[in-house]
Specification:
alpha/beta; Rossmann fold; two-stranded antiparallel sheet; 7 helices
């Protein structure tokens, strides 16, 4: 059985029997208007991390991490902007720099999914090999918005684990629910986890109002 790496969120680790199996690719889909990046930031606190950004600049990600440190634990990831011209080329070049037992974050995956299909498929396969060889975990942050890339189906199929964050407005409240419908090497969760995403990631213990 593969070892597990912590997500940085205790209750999620318990639900996943200790965390995410090493060598896994996690596809994390979320509404672009949500606070989904907070989960990515907390992932950087538990071990070495390489953070590949495709839309925001390196400075923007660094500034966001600095702001988040006032409220919750984050790490000191290596941040690289790969979205300027050829995002797949940039991502491929950096795969070989992933340390042992680390976390690779791609935020967001959408620009890569819009590249030539055969090259994107090759990237996912090379990513899988690198995660296995280094006993690491990759988290691919994908926007579930108004314009979903055609290759999203391929991303979902290739992913070992899927985290799907659903954000909805209920009256005066914003409710975030995390589901894990796919989990190779483990068990998918039968129920969603209600999260608080404000200054950090925590479990929402409030009861739903019927």
């Amino acid at each position: 059985m593969s070892r597990r790496l912590s997500t940085g969120v205790d209750v999620l680790d318990r639900q996943l029997d200790g965390g995410i199996p090493t060598g896994s690719i996690v596809l994390f889909t979320a509404d672009p208007a949500s606070q989904s990046e907070l989960l990515l930031y907390e992932l950087t606190a538990v071990r070495a991390a390489l953070y590949l950004t495709t839309l925001r600049s390196e400075q923007a990600v660094s500034d966001a991490l600095d702001r988040t440190t006032r409220y919750t634990q984050v790490g000191d990831p290596t941040i690289r902007d790969i979205g300027v011209e050829a995002p797949l080329d940039g991502a491929n070049k950096l795969l070989g720099t992933v340390p042992e037992e680390s976390t690779l974050i791609v935020d967001t995956l959408d620009p890569l999914e819009r590249q030539e299909p055969s090259r994107f498929r090759r990237f996912l396969n090379e990513l899988q090999t690198q995660m296995t060889n280094t006993e690491s975990v990759a988290v691919l942050h994908a926007m579930d918005g108004r314009s979903v890339p055609v290759m999203r189906d391929v991303s979902e199929h290739m992913a070992d684990v899927i985290f799907d964050l659903d954000t909805e407005r209920q009256g005066t409240e914003i409710v975030n629910r995390l589901s894990v419908p796919k989990f190779r090497g483990g068990r998918a969760l039968e129920e969603t986890i209600k999260l608080k995403l404000s200054t950090g990631v925590s479990i929402d213990t409030s009861r739903d109002i019927a």
